[in-house]
Write a structure and sequence with these properties.
This protein is an all-alpha fold. It has a domain at 22-77. The protein has helices spanning 24-37, 44-56, 58-68, 84-99. Bound molecules: zinc ion.
Length: 101
């Protein structure tokens, strides 16, 4: 009867045990691309790259999920309409996330 205590604390993403197959810089690149997205510069290709990245990166996935609640990211329509407020909000989130890593 193994009693598992909650000793498995989640620290800041260090090098231990997380299935993060890419480096931090890769995450930052994705974040920057998301930033381009809110400037209407994001191509379908990049959407695909982001999706692939998200498959391998729980951290980024969580982040993008929260963005998706603001707008639907990478949806079929290539040029979603974002209000100025949406952009400001997303940019803020992105910058915050990027600088916290
Ligand atoms: Zn990532």
């Amino acid at each position: 009867m193994a009693q598992r205590s909650a000793s498995k604390r989640k620290r800041q993403a260090s090098t231990t045990g997380q299935p993060h197959t890419h480096g931090k810089s890769r995450c930052l690149r994705i974040l920057r691309q998301l930033s381009a997205y809110i400037d209407d510069e994001l191509s379908t290709n990049i959407c695909q790259e982001i999706r692939q990245h998200l498959g391998a990166c729980p951290n980024c996935e969580t982040f993008v999920m929260s963005l998706r609640q603001t707008v639907s990211l990478c949806r079929q329509s290539p040029a979603p309409t974002l209000s100025t407020a949406d952009r400001a909000l997303m940019r803020e989130k992105i910058l915050k996330t990027a600088s916290s890593r």
